[in-house]
Each structure stands twice: as C-alpha cells, then as structure tokens.
Amino acid sequence: MRWKVEDMKKILDMQDYIDTVIYPVCVSHVPWDKKSIAEPFWVEKVSAAAEQQLTGRVLLFQTLSAVWHDQYIDTTFPYVMQNLEALRGGFPYCLVVTNAEELAAKLREANVEAYVVRAVPEAAVQSKNFLEKSLVEGNRIVQKIISVWN
After folding, report:
1. Crossing angle, helix 72-88 and helix 101-109, to 10 degrees?
2. How many Cα atoms within 13 Å fall on the side-chain side of residue 125?
3. For the chain, does the N or the C end have fewer beta carbons within 10 angstroms?
4. pLDDT tens track for 130-149
5. pTM of the predicted structure, to 2 decimals
C-alpha cells in the first residue's frame, strides 16, 4: 500500500496486517542533470515494484530526497533515523531503500536494514527496458524483505 493522505483510512483499517515499511531515500547530486533527475524516480519505481508484489503486508512510505554535499550524512542520517523511530512503533520491520552506499552503511551500523539499488539504467524512464530493469530490481528488494521476515 502506498502512503497517500487520501488512503489514510484504508491504511488504518489494514494496520493489523501491514507489518513492514519500505522507506525510499534518494541522495541526488548537483548540479542537476538527466541522471540526478532520474535517480529519485528510479528509487521510488523499484520500491513501488517491491510493494506491489507484497501488497497487504507492506507500506510504501513517501520517498525522501536529499541533495548530496560534503556533510549530507550529518543531516540526512538523523532525519531518517527520527522517521524510522516513529515508524517502528507501528511496524516491526523497516527497510530503507537508497542509492547511497555511505548512508546505507551508516544505517546498518545503527542496526537498520538497508538496501542499495543498482545504478539508474541508461534507458529512457518511459522505455520498456527501464520498466523491466525496475521489476528485476524490485524482485531483489522483495527477496531482501523476505530474508528480514525470516
């Protein structure tokens, strides 16, 4: 289930069944170019592909976008941790899906499950190739979630 304000009642009704949150976090570089625009879309797309396969048990949280700079980890990490602490009250399993290896490593040090997506495909975001690659990456996230459940 996706996180949308208009779906709040449905989310609350299903709360007894949903035990896992996918929290996409994208770190983009500046200056903005085609790749930095495609990265947040990619992180959200592969997270959504995983959520669709596990609908009814998984909530896809809103994607957090952060801009890379020398000290981005000092601001982004505490913010992500604050959100995770709030989410853990209702969801025993949380998986951060990110494109930033440094952030994932810091999260793992804090005992947070983190998955680093592969690089954005060179294909146009509207192409069949892009969609196929997002489904493959989504399947990897599903495998990660299942391993967390076990």
Report:
1. 50
2. 14
3. C
4. 889 999 999 999 999 999 99
5. 0.89
